[in-house]
Amino acid sequence: MTKHEQIIAHIESLKIGSKISVRQIAKDLKVSDGTAYRAIKDAENRGIVSTIERVGTVRIEKKTRETIDNLTFAEIVKIIDGHVVGGRSGLHKSLVKFAIGAMEVEDAAKYLGANTLLIVGNRSDIQQIALEKDTAVLITGGFEVEESIRQLADAKGLPIISSAYDTFTVANMINRAIYDQLIKKEVLTVAEILISADETSTLFDSDTVRDWKELSMSSGHTRFPVIDDQEKVCGIITHKDIIDQDNSIKIKKLMTKNPITVSESSTIAACAHIMIWEGIEMLPVISRHHMLAGIVTREDVLLAMQSADRQPQMGHTINDQVLKYMRFEGNDITVRMTPQMSSNLGTVSKSVFVAIIEEATKYAMKRERKREILIESLNIYFLKTVPIDSELSISLLQLDSGRKFAKLEVDICSKQVTVAKAMLMCQLIEA
Question: Which helix (DSSP H) or strand (DSSP E) does residue 83 occupy?
């Protein structure tokens, strides 16, 4: 285990909320300040530590796919453009629900507890009870906080957040943020499928062809990310690069430099696009500081895309909303327009047209070619406005088709009158 990995393991063993400093890590693990600093920054990229203003760096609980919708109090501060007036050390904590304190003290107490945020105005009585019940407080209207309340918040590590907005506005802002998080929860990202750095075979740029051969023999792989002496990704080396090369030649001379990389937050769809377009079988996954977080392979990306349609839907994107009103019967595709699909002028919004075209194309390609798709380009011509409560029919014509690409023309009609036409090019992916 490298010194970097030892520091990460040490940080992961710390209690949630523990403060972390470069100097203390360096002293405890007998490493240089630079090594400790890089490891702490990597831990921050991995989501297990966070730097909080006027508090420092603290150990936090890493968000998983199951908990991504739980916002932290620090995130709430940014969402509502607020500021912290007390309990700053608890900003890393997550909230599961929020309550509005527009009620009597006895009634409000029923909704208070740990991992809760109370939204309230200038009511010190409810603020006091909230903190006593381990509930954070968001004070609306820009009111001041009594010193005794501030001291209690600091003692319990429960944030008091102040906002100039009214209660209704901040409640809507937080609710919207939670809803957005639910949608993000269903978007597959690299973090879900990557092979972590601990499980990834790597070579240093100072290694030789002989080292490549030995690693290939022991691991059974032929493609490896290459890192430099700072443990940053600097290249990719494959079996094609070392054919007929002398065993003593340095990897640095043969590797592909400045390789295409992705981050843990990159989407699976983005990886598929890169791999197909560039003909790449493996992508290194890097942290913000170009340290290796792991790798993703073409096989893993395609398997993830195939399973995406079978994931339970927690949030609702525009495509989810449109799909509920689409009907597919053989070559016949229809969709009923609803008020939710309208623009502020009462006609179908352009984003809904895009969703209709995308879902119709996905259906047609699955049915005819047994393929998933990635849309490369899309040109839409809006010919007539479409009022709500209309029923549209969609027809598709393949103008050109190959093994990896297809060009289609899409007609959208209402009462046999064409209201929109589209031309699109899409990549075809094995289903």
Answer: strand 83-86
**What is the rounded distance in angstroms from the CA atom of residue 144 to the CA atom of residue 122?**
8
Whole-angstrom distance, CA of residue 256 vs CA of residue 173: 47
| Digit-coded pLDDT (tens) for 336-381 | 988 777 766 667 778 888 889 999 999 999 888 888 888 889 999 9
CB 66 within 8 A of CB 88: no
Question: Is residue 61 a contact partner of residue 15, using CB atoms and an 8 Å limit?
Answer: no
State the pTM of this model.
0.49
Nearest to 45 by CA among 55, 53, 37, 33: 37
Token pair belonging to 78: 């940014």
* Residue 86: pLDDT over 80: yes
* pLDDT per position as a tens digit, 263-288: 888 888 788 878 877 888 899 999 87
Pairing between β-strand 371-382 and β-strand 326-329 as defined by DSSP bridges: unpaired
Per-residue confidence (pLDDT) for residue 92, from 0 to 100: 84
Q: How far is CA 139 from CA 72, 133, 177, 232, 335, in A?
A: 17, 17, 18, 45, 46
CA distances from 94 to 75, 115, 223, 287 (A): 9, 6, 40, 24
The beta strands (E) that lie in 191-347 are given as 195-196, 203-204, 223-227, 233-238, 256-257, 282-286, 292-297, 326-329, 332-336
The strands making up 292-297's β-sheet, listed across from edge to edge, are: 195-196, 292-297, 282-286
Span 116-160, pLDDT tens digits: 888 888 888 888 888 998 999 999 888 888 999 999 999 999 999
> Could you tell me the two tokens for 370?
């047994």
Does residue 5 surpass a pLDDT of 60?
yes
Burial 101-139 (b: 16+ CB within 10 A, else e): beeeeeebbebbeeebbbbbbebeebbbbbbebbbbbbb
| Domains, the chain | 3-59 (1.10.10.10), 73-185 (3.40.1390.20), 190-307 (3.10.580.10), 318-430 (3.10.129.10)
Beta strand 195-196 with 292-297 is antiparallel
Would you state the structure tokens that stand for residue 211, as one six-digit string? 């080292």
Sheet with 56-59, strands from edge to edge, namely 19-20, 56-59, 49-52
In whole angstroms, give the CA distance from residue 105 to residue 328.
54
Q: What percent of the chain has pLDDT over 70?
A: 90
List the beta bridge partners of residue 96.
none
Distance CA(288)–CA(266), nearest Å, equals 12
